Amino acid sequence: VTVFVTLVRHEWRSLTADASLSLVCAVFAGAIAYGTLNGVRWVTFQRQAIAEALDEERERFEKHEAEIVRINRENASVSAFADPRNPDAAGRTLGARYAVLPPTALAPLAIGQSDLLPYYFKMTTDAKETVLAAAELENPHRLLAGRFDLAFVLIYLYPLLILTLTYNVLSMEREQGTLVLALSQPVPLRALVAAKMMLRFGVLLGALIVMTLSAIAIGGVDVAAPDSSLRLAWWVLAVALYGLFWFAVAAAVTSLGRPSATNAMALAGVWLILLILVPSALSMTATATFPVPSRVEMIQAMRVASDEANAEGSKLLAQYYEDHPELATGDEQQAMNDFNMVRVAVNSEVEQRVRPVLDRYTQQLAAQQRVVSGARFLSPAILMQDALNDIAGTGTARHREFMKQVEDYHQRWREHFIPLVFQKAKLQDYAGLPRFTFEEEELSTVTRRVALSWFGLALPSLAIGAFAFARVRRYPVVG
Amino acid sequence: MVRTIARKEVIEMLRDGRFRLLAVFVLVLSAASFAAGWRQYVDVQRQHLQAQQETRAQWLNQPAKNPHSAAHYGMYAFKPKSRLSLVDTGIDPYVGVAAWLEAHKQNEYRYRPAQDRTAIQRFGELTAAEGFLVILPLFIVLASFTAFAGEREQGTLRQLLSLGVSRRDLVTGKALGVAAALACVVIPATLLGVVALAYTSEFAGIREDLPRAALLAGVYLVYFTIFAAFSLGVSAWVRSSRAALVVLLACWFANSLLATRAASDLAAWLRPTPSAIEFQRAMDHDLSNPEEMRVRLEHRRQELMREYRVASIEAVPINFSGISLQEGEEQGNEVFDRHYGRVFDTYRAQNRVFQWTGIAAPMLPIRALSLSLAATDFAHHRDFVTAAEAYRRSIQRVMNDDIALNSRPGVVYTAESTLWSRVPEFSYRLPGAWWALRGNQIALAMLTVWLVAALVFASSATRRLAVE
After folding, report:
1. Which residue in B has a C-alpha nearest to residue A39's C-alpha?
2. What is the pTM of this model?
3. A348: Cα within 13 Å, side-chain hemisphere
4. Contact A283 B121 (CB under 8 A)
């Protein structure tokens, strides 16, 4: 143990004397600062957009409620489209409400899919696909390039910095002739490697955590929000395990006893394979085996269905009454000429007809997701991306949950308005319109998903580390 | 002498198992990416062409109805896929595939294909362009980092120079060696691309795309030259081959992965994109301007009464509701042009930032040129959007003119298929290669700066090539 302490102390001295550690730390600090800044800016942008949406809703509601008061007072006549009391107009446009996915407190840690997937919808009685087709404005070149956020720094840059600090730990000493000198003392080679690796790991991880925490604290991330401290702990654990993996890889390559340049090339190759090739090959395989057809097909299917349904018009309403006797009010004959009621029936028919087409998209995407979920263990980078997005709440899983709740909300919204349309009700205010609040996933659900990534990172790290530990005994000290 | 040196380099590389492995690997990769790109292009293009015909048929088969209902029924514009997207998919996954062309509204392009994919696509797609611009430079680095530093370490550099080999011959020979190694990979890969392109001849316009393909190959070659010159320069400049490798790998990473992302965030910082809600709200505000509409209509009324020399609008022999609908369109068009124009100009300004920051990394200008020549950048998207919008406006004009000329106020009016067929078929032609280049002058300038800088650096570093 005392030997180990001496080794670490000595290693610390030589590491700090060298410029490479401070260079690595400087690059790291700059990247973390820029990444955090970009994450914070993006989340601020999202919050502002959400506030703007809610403000628009409030203003619109005030306007229409004032209009209702005016119409009632003056007994004014207004066209049905512009009449805020008309439940059909209210449900389709005038009374639309926003369904919002608020960013979590730790969202600045990883932008994830949140720049691509919509985080608010304007709810109306229109077809679900029309409501859900909304998207945030973004320069497609920026979506293609991806963001320089903390997750990028961690997934791509962090391993490279580890490799820069470790590719020559033993080979350099050997090339300089100091390795023989060191081993002429009563120092086991394993202890020497362990001391070098652990010190570097400790310094880098410590610097990373301290720098990130101070960056997010300065950036105004609310660490005191519920769940945040636990999520931060999960984050630290993921970062530590991802670092461990790359240290294990570096140790394994080191233990093969090749010259520094070969080590550098081998490690760069591993990095290239795990970060660039495996993910893109996997993405290609998933889309090639389970291609999601172009949405063009869906658009055409919906158009054909709605042409046919519109042609049948009032006949469909009669059928609709058979399916929904609770909506009958006694004057069905008159209802056949009512545009709004016919539309309800037509919409419901269109949705039934295009359901099979829509289901195919969902099925194919789910199949792709299964391929990726199964194969993600092939690359620690994918596991890390999953874990970081999950912890920050910007991943696919939380968004899928949001979409599910939005679909339920759409259902509720329709169910609220359809009876009112059939009763020819006149709304007196908009306070009673259904509201949406996102029910956050249980933290335990998130933890379960993140835990899989932890295991996926830890197991290969241990295996590779064990290989390095065994192999280093045969290290060619001279040569 | 030069030839001997080059031959030695090539033989050495060919005998190196790692090199052969790497070359085969790059070729397999490019075959796979061309195949995937080809598949995607053919599938999407077939679907879009078919859909475009269907939407036309639906338009023509409308029953007798009022022209304004026909205008509301409208048509869809499906964005065609460019042939060279099989080399570089570019922004295609991140822009919508179709827009509804209806009365009163310029709609956005909906359904970004990226939303129908999993999160790992954000690691990047395995396109041929990715292979050429990201993986191949790495191959160049590995083929050249030992060129001078390695000879120096082994002591063969001193030997060579003592034999009377001139430095210039040595440098030329080494450069030719790297070029030959590169050619071993690039030529077959290019042939694969040519084959993939040849198999797209079922779609029209293959001849028009050839200049684009040739220019694309040309700018890629310039990029490879930059990398090769820079790598040789570094190899001559630094002391050990280990240092050369580390420096080159760091540069490769900064250029290939760091630069685009850093520039992307910088661009949004300098020229922020508005949020969709902000955009929509401002546009809706400008669209509902009854006062302006009233003034416009009054103006048109006066104009018509003057033109027909009558005292009341009822006496004018055309139906004013057609005029009024068209005025509504005109008012809307001004608003759309202003608001969409502002957002699109923001994107363009952001993309200019991308190009200017190319002074820091050659990836940025080459990427811009690659996307543009493949017709998968925003400028091309905008060109299509503008053409489709002009078409939408032409539909509205035909419908509204018909209402004005043929209908009478207070009488139910329906038009028949003769009117529908008076709207010409929508056809879109990709602008030429020259147009693509003209929009990327900054990128071209930056790439030239890099080329000159890399060559100057390589020649000065090799001229001062130290023996020890």
Report:
1. B265
2. 0.93
3. 21
4. yes
